[in-house]
Amino acid sequence: MKPRTRARGIALQVLFEVDLVSHPLGTAIKYRLEDASLDERLAEFSANIARSVWPIKDQLDAFIAEHAPEWPLEQVAIIDRNILRIALWELAVSSETPVKVAINEAVELAKMYGSESSPRFVNGVLGSLAARQNELRQSLAAAIIEKKPQEQ
Predict the structure, then answer these.
(1) Which of 35, 92, 125, 130 is the most exposed place for a label (fewest CB within 10 A)?
(2) CATH second-level architecture of 3-151?
(3) Alpha helix stretches (DSSP H) within 22-132
(4) Cα 93 from Cα 140, distance rounded (Å)
(5) Which residues of 124-141 are buried (b: 16+ CB within 10 A; e: fewer)?
(6) pLDDT value for 52
(7) Domain ranges of the chain
């Protein structure tokens, strides 16, 4: 497995844990990274994904729900939901990852952690979201600015 894919997998595990059992984000990150033995740069990449995705999950979920109307968000598997959140964040917020790479990485995570139908579902939702990348960027940038004062 490629190192950045592995780092994304750790971030996915953190988000899954926080989403499923409501553990504190910082605690989940700490323990997952202790077990992962990633180099410092990849550990920071992984932690940054989790720290960046979780505060705007509601906004990410709204876009996901809009592009998967046949699957109400509460019926989407928790692992798939978090894979989509990570990829959408990479598509619309992070400027580090090209669109095709973000989608391919999400599909790879879906193959590793999801069900048999997860890769196709993730690819389909992200394909339709990628077509609206500029709109997503503007909307999520506004959501991030709104969240910053609350965190201080």
Answers:
(1) 35
(2) Orthogonal Bundle (1.10)
(3) 25-36, 40-53, 57-67, 78-92, 99-113, 118-130
(4) 7
(5) ebbeebbeeeeebeeebe
(6) 95
(7) 3-151
Contacts 24+ apart (CB under 8 A), 108-117: 108/5, 109/5, 109/8, 109/9, 109/12, 109/83, 110/80, 110/83, 112/1, 112/9, 113/9, 113/12, 113/79, 113/83, 114/77, 114/79, 114/80, 114/83, 115/77, 115/80
Could you give the CA distance from residue 136 to residue 134 in angstroms, rounded to a whole number? 5
Dist. CA 127–CA 143, nearest whole Å: 22
| Cα 44 to Cα 50: distance, rounded to the nearest angstrom | 10
Instruction: Retrieve residue 145's tokens.
Output: 């600015």
Q: At what angle do helices 78-92 and 99-113 cross, to 10 degrees?
A: 170
